[in-house]
Amino acid sequence: MSTHAAVTEFLFEESAALDETRYGDWLDLLTEDFRYEVPQPITPQSPDEPQYTSRMPISSESKGSLRMRFDRMSSEYAWADRPKHFLRHFVSNIRVRRIGDDVWEVRSNVLVARSRTSEETVLATAGRLDVLHGNPKDGFRLAARTVHLDVEVPSAAQLAPIY
Amino acid sequence: MSTHAAVTEFLFEESAALDETRYGDWLDLLTEDFRYEVPQPITPQSPDEPQYTSRMPISSESKGSLRMRFDRMSSEYAWADRPKHFLRHFVSNIRVRRIGDDVWEVRSNVLVARSRTSEETVLATAGRLDVLHGNPKDGFRLAARTVHLDVEVPSAAQLAPIY
Amino acid sequence: MSTHAAVTEFLFEESAALDETRYGDWLDLLTEDFRYEVPQPITPQSPDEPQYTSRMPISSESKGSLRMRFDRMSSEYAWADRPKHFLRHFVSNIRVRRIGDDVWEVRSNVLVARSRTSEETVLATAGRLDVLHGNPKDGFRLAARTVHLDVEVPSAAQLAPIY
Amino acid sequence: MSLPEVLGRFAPDCSSLPQTVFNDPEVLDAELARIFTRSWLFLAHESEVAVSGDYVTRRMGRDQVIVSRGEDGQIRVMRNACTHRGTLLCKATLGNTSHFMCPYHAWTFDNTGRLRGVPEARPAYGTFDKSSRDLRRARTEVYQGLVFATWDDDAEPLADFLGDFAWYLDALVGGDGAAWEVAGPPQRYTIKANWKLSCENFGGDGYHVPYAHRAPIEGGLFGTEDTGTGGPSGRVVWTPQGHTARVGYHPAGSGIPAYHGYPDEQRAEFAAKAKPEVFAVLENSDVLHGNVFPNLSFIQTVITYTGDEVEPTAFLALRLALPISPTETEMLNFALVPRNAPDAWKQKSVLACVRTHGAAAGLFESDDVDNFTAVTFTGDGAIAARTDLDYSMGARLPRPEPDDWPGPGESVPHDHSEYTHRAYYTTWLRHLREDA
Amino acid sequence: MSLPEVLGRFAPDCSSLPQTVFNDPEVLDAELARIFTRSWLFLAHESEVAVSGDYVTRRMGRDQVIVSRGEDGQIRVMRNACTHRGTLLCKATLGNTSHFMCPYHAWTFDNTGRLRGVPEARPAYGTFDKSSRDLRRARTEVYQGLVFATWDDDAEPLADFLGDFAWYLDALVGGDGAAWEVAGPPQRYTIKANWKLSCENFGGDGYHVPYAHRAPIEGGLFGTEDTGTGGPSGRVVWTPQGHTARVGYHPAGSGIPAYHGYPDEQRAEFAAKAKPEVFAVLENSDVLHGNVFPNLSFIQTVITYTGDEVEPTAFLALRLALPISPTETEMLNFALVPRNAPDAWKQKSVLACVRTHGAAAGLFESDDVDNFTAVTFTGDGAIAARTDLDYSMGARLPRPEPDDWPGPGESVPHDHSEYTHRAYYTTWLRHLREDA
Amino acid sequence: MSLPEVLGRFAPDCSSLPQTVFNDPEVLDAELARIFTRSWLFLAHESEVAVSGDYVTRRMGRDQVIVSRGEDGQIRVMRNACTHRGTLLCKATLGNTSHFMCPYHAWTFDNTGRLRGVPEARPAYGTFDKSSRDLRRARTEVYQGLVFATWDDDAEPLADFLGDFAWYLDALVGGDGAAWEVAGPPQRYTIKANWKLSCENFGGDGYHVPYAHRAPIEGGLFGTEDTGTGGPSGRVVWTPQGHTARVGYHPAGSGIPAYHGYPDEQRAEFAAKAKPEVFAVLENSDVLHGNVFPNLSFIQTVITYTGDEVEPTAFLALRLALPISPTETEMLNFALVPRNAPDAWKQKSVLACVRTHGAAAGLFESDDVDNFTAVTFTGDGAIAARTDLDYSMGARLPRPEPDDWPGPGESVPHDHSEYTHRAYYTTWLRHLREDA
Ligand code: FES
Ligand code: FES
Ligand code: FES
Ligand SMILES: [Fe+3]
Ligand SMILES: [Fe+3]
Ligand SMILES: [Fe+3]
């Protein structure tokens, strides 16, 4: 299997773990020092300035903080996460680049669909910049993910999922 | 060609047949005992209970009932299907698993865009669980499809297409 | 690498050039006689008549006219394109067919997400019919693209991007 | 146009009415305030909350409610909103619980709506009269398994509200509501149409069947044998409460028994329970459909062919039309099956229902929804706002003489007519003219 | 703010007006009721319905209509809504048919709007006066190939409505409307802006050209030779009916002929047909654009360069602005080409139009739409609702003395001014102040 | 229900109020007109526009504004709309510029709002009084680094508007607003809830903490040591201007210093600047949060554990609630950090804020937003429109005797009470009852 195909398979399985609320499975796909960041989108005056800032990011999570969040969800008092919502990731435009020994920079575009109870489905789109460790033979681990939202003022529903 | 690539190609061609209203071509891709089901999404009290019920499904079709529906569309009196609408499938996150001799369980995520006359495009998303018979050499046939809608109260426009 | 994989990679890189406003890079991916056309969607009376007309298309561009448009964007007075917007292509259902020596007909479905300043993200979907010149070894050039919008009355925001 | 102007445009017999009743936000506001807070409204089928603690969440008009069966076995309907500061109490579609705890400050209500727990009640509030903060309950009554409720404590009893129409609900369920259960949780979907358009259609409108549904009928949905003379031979029925129905008939002597399409054992059970007049009415009928004012529609019919075997199969469906906005409606589709029918038969009945009258029924229902949408669509515009629609079918003909048809209520054998539409809007108008 | 308060904020000469006219739903309702049901409205170009049976579906304000050419060759405009119970009759964008059959109960209308078939008319209705149920028709007239209609039977004839402005429409089409055809079905798209913002801009506003369109002008869209002294040298025109236009000029003596950018043969044909005054007005002009009250804009100009060859190419475009809501508008873009021009030339003209003034014209038009949107955007707010905008350009200067410019109507050589805006809103205000 | 009827439903002491204040469009219109054009509104933190030319674009109510620091170093707030014909001047979120050029006709304003350039002013307008077309400015004042503005030229000075509440803002910033800076541009997001629901909650509502936030508290967010007797031991504060706050306390003698969770050096700096009473108030406190009327909320607290190390870390966040519609609100979240704190500490503070009180804070904040949404959701309906909510907590108990707590304003040690809610709505009601 080509690296691209293996990475693709990894990302699809990883998304499925989130969509199916198999949080334990998902955590197992992360390195211990995993970092998840969603910088704040902004519209700068000049097209040469960056559209994202990490000074006060939307999200900045570690494996530990995500585990705490998932643990919370198993509580009966996880009001915002109960009852279960509908969630689905659409991962496309996967581009893989080797940046080190068994280290890969993987870019992908992701559309996330989410709905709760009788609400309409809310869609959100973003670009993802992942760092993967591993190889097709031994498998991969996700070491970092940066999510570039395609909207400056997202709705709370668009911010709820992990991208 | 890998099985994954062949299945992917099959699913893309299958979607194109629907999008281009080549219904005869599409029916030819189905096994005789093909089953199409869209269970009713619900929000259960507990996260451990299922989010879908088939007791009274949204759709439950056979090759025969679909053929009857397509035949109807060729009638001048198929009011709801005339004039033609715009339809497009976006199939992604394809995951293939062998479950028997020349039998494959294929999961995919699908976004469907539909518009009629001057209406805005309506998007809908779902997960699909397909059973395929065949192999890359001889080709595949679709033996079953279950569609898990990502919304509990879909609009009529979201229910019109075959996913 | 298979032709399909190579074409896929080409299309992903091409989309990324647009999304990241690397217009020079993007123009380098086009043949000199590149044609870009977006026909006008219509709803004809009969399902046998075409849903698109090129008599007065939505867009009809050449490499030259696109270069002029991009040059304009670098002007401080490109009011409609400043400040920068958020743009992302989701390319899927890629189908490749050889139609000549090193000439390929490539169909794909594309969803485009766009947002400006504090506006909500606007999504648009379309089918694309591309002609590619080249091969996996030497690389590809895009020789023509026809975009079939899935909506008869698009919003200005849906018309702004190149698909 | 102001609401009084809109109401003033109605012909006295409702044979003509302003199109804007399907589009005007002020009309919907008045409907919600004057109909949906006063009429008995259908909520659920008893079997959906079969045992103590079972509940489903629904709407009455646009108000959120819980339908729950208490430990005492009684079904109650109550606002799904905390009496402290209004938080939605229960977000699930259905479930079973003894208590609902508010996610904001943990006030806890039992499943009869009684406030049971207020954290720190004494130090926070001092003397606290819990009973003054029970969930707001709607008066609830059940008829033949159908759960209705009203917000109006002065409303007439459900039996009076149904009046003569109860007879047709009896007929629908073979005289024994308890023999039925929902096949599953209802289908739910939204349509871009005013809520009344589905109701007026279900309450009669035999006139549209051969035209709107021409394609599937020609495709053999109801079979291919020609059962005779042709021509409309049904009957429309209405009561002063605005309830309406239609019974379609095969030609006399077709030999089609009442409850055709149900398993034989089932028909026998019905025969044991139902009144003879019911059998007289249903013999040779091919469909019974109608609408309980304001928004509960029903249909019982027989489907012969949907692409698989040719096999006449009956189904019974309820359809609830819940307004979202003047131009958008949420539909709930319930399939009812006889509790004791074989599972295989139940599945066939559900299939017949789902493929022809379900949310995604491309074979039949989609053409109706398309028409409801198309009427609503043309209602937007300054000329549309001054346009009257024609509901006069049959109004300029002499009303047929009373005959010996045994069904109660008012009825005429004028199948293709708009008697029921006029009856529906006459009641509607009476409500809308009442002060808020 | 109530509607009378909004109207009361206008300066007497419309040199200042409340921003809320672009955002207030009550204002749009009044516009639909008082302008769009009374004025002559542009619908289509004659060539779109070239032969008997041809039709297109359009809107007048927000009302759905069909524009159809009957078997008698006459063009009619009628509501696209069944007179029975209001169903949309025709869902296609365009086509050719002799009859429209309603999908609900199969009432059938011919393409003149006459009700021809009512299934079971006699048994269902008794005596049925079909002619009372013809489709509601709008009075229709054609001028120079432009199809207009009005719902107001008491409206003045189209010729009176156009008045002196007809002369400019004549000029636009070289005196011969029949010589033109649409290049294809119009582009359609929506913008998040009030409908009037495009109309007021098209009717004059030479002031914005060098600034809003600076980038494409510097890019060589209109050529790179400096044609002289610079400075605004155009002329603005208006008539009492609220029609407005602007003629832009190269410096006198530039030697640019009238109808520059059209094929030579075409120019010769125009010369044979058009009045000499037209030629005097168009000589050395680089653009003629304007707006027929309320919402039909037009532009004829010459594009020199859009990235391919440098080759001056003329185009003629019509632009219809149809309100959806106060802050959203559907635009229809028509390109007109001389019927007898070579196909290759027609394509170049369409290209020039599409790339610079089309729905997706990134080179020019997008900056206009961006401004219309940006004005509408700032109109939301409590302070915005009390803000007046400045339309005083030229109002505080002495009005230039009449000169010998041969165009009719009122006009001044004050190119960069807001005379036309004030004329537009003066008419608008007169209509809005009329009782509903 | 008309606005006077809505206001008439309030209990005199606001211990009960109609749910429709969270859903009625007429209520929001009145709020925008009577509160958001008259009150001092928070716009930005001074450090966001640190040097001359810096600007951010914001809203006041729904009006678009620019907050800009002029060459003179002064911060000004002005409408982000051209005074010519209303075009949005600046589309960027933030930047640095000396001038804003309008994209429509290139009028150019300097960053103090003065109109500097009008192309062709003389020939187009004649005598043109540029100063009459400066951008509309809002009166601007800064307190402890917080930039406020009001559209009302007759409004009392900011100091009077803040009144006794200024003391608590002093306490928040350790007496030295200049010592703080924003960590970065604020998070922005929308919630489907009425804007007041977040404000009333931030201004008090200790009652919800143990229940709404039970899961993260049990998860160890605030640490796992039991600090004592339990039971609510906080204090609620309010002033006649409708400003409200709550100080939460550990049990007396817990030994927790004021400004716990900040670097030691920082605490020393605060100690040097702040008044002794501030220390008395903040000692043993675990949180200080509140709301400056109408819509600026703030919170300062200490987070012990979010899944990584256990390490008490303080953060200070501002929360601005900007109405979009009755049922939708844009939230702006600012994190403030002491300018001189080590970068590594700043990052930890931001992390503590983002993970617990940020836009996507799954660990804490999401449960609050869920409640605000759920209250707004149940407010839709005809019964909901006639429903009153219960804000009586503490109103039926005797008001505690004044004690020696040194904070100014009115305050009671009745932590779990709705004193602050009633104070907030009392002020709200006073404004709403003023004529427009
Ligand atoms: S809102 Fe339900 S307990 Fe407070
Ligand atoms: S609505 Fe058109 S025929 Fe009845
Ligand atoms: S609108 Fe700003 S310069 Fe004209
Ligand atoms: Fe029907
Ligand atoms: Fe322009
Ligand atoms: Fe909270």
UniProtKB/TrEMBL annotation, chains A, B, C:
<dbReference type="InterPro" id="IPR032710">
    <property type="entry name" value="NTF2-like_dom_sf"/>
</dbReference>
<feature type="region of interest" description="Disordered">
    <location>
        <begin position="39"/>
        <end position="58"/>
    </location>
</feature>
<comment type="similarity">
    <text>Belongs to the bacterial ring-hydroxylating dioxygenase beta subunit family.</text>
</comment>
<keyword id="KW-0560">Oxidoreductase</keyword>
<dbReference type="InterPro" id="IPR000391">
    <property type="entry name" value="Rng_hydr_dOase-bsu"/>
</dbReference>
<protein>
    <recommendedName>
        <fullName>3-phenylpropionate/cinnamic acid dioxygenase, small subunit</fullName>
    </recommendedName>
</protein>
<feature type="compositionally biased region" description="Polar residues">
    <location>
        <begin position="43"/>
        <end position="58"/>
    </location>
</feature>
<dbReference type="Pfam" id="PF00866">
    <property type="entry name" value="Ring_hydroxyl_B"/>
</dbReference>
UniProtKB/TrEMBL annotation, chains D, E, F:
<protein>
    <submittedName>
        <fullName>Aromatic ring-hydroxylating dioxygenase subunit alpha</fullName>
    </submittedName>
</protein>
<dbReference type="Pfam" id="PF00848">
    <property type="entry name" value="Ring_hydroxyl_A"/>
</dbReference>
<keyword id="KW-0223">Dioxygenase</keyword>
<dbReference type="GO" id="GO:0051213">
    <property type="term" value="F:dioxygenase activity"/>
</dbReference>
<keyword id="KW-0520">NAD</keyword>
<dbReference type="InterPro" id="IPR015881">
    <property type="entry name" value="ARHD_Rieske_2Fe_2S"/>
</dbReference>
<dbReference type="InterPro" id="IPR017941">
    <property type="entry name" value="Rieske_2Fe-2S"/>
</dbReference>
<dbReference type="Pfam" id="PF00355">
    <property type="entry name" value="Rieske"/>
</dbReference>
<dbReference type="InterPro" id="IPR015879">
    <property type="entry name" value="Ring_hydroxy_dOase_asu_C_dom"/>
</dbReference>
<dbReference type="InterPro" id="IPR001663">
    <property type="entry name" value="Rng_hydr_dOase-A"/>
</dbReference>
<keyword id="KW-0479">Metal-binding</keyword>
<keyword id="KW-0408">Iron</keyword>
<keyword id="KW-0411">Iron-sulfur</keyword>
<keyword id="KW-0001">2Fe-2S</keyword>
<feature type="region of interest" description="Disordered">
    <location>
        <begin position="395"/>
        <end position="416"/>
    </location>
</feature>
<comment type="similarity">
    <text>Belongs to the bacterial ring-hydroxylating dioxygenase alpha subunit family.</text>
</comment>
<dbReference type="InterPro" id="IPR036922">
    <property type="entry name" value="Rieske_2Fe-2S_sf"/>
</dbReference>
<feature type="domain" description="Rieske">
    <location>
        <begin position="41"/>
        <end position="149"/>
    </location>
</feature>
<keyword id="KW-0560">Oxidoreductase</keyword>
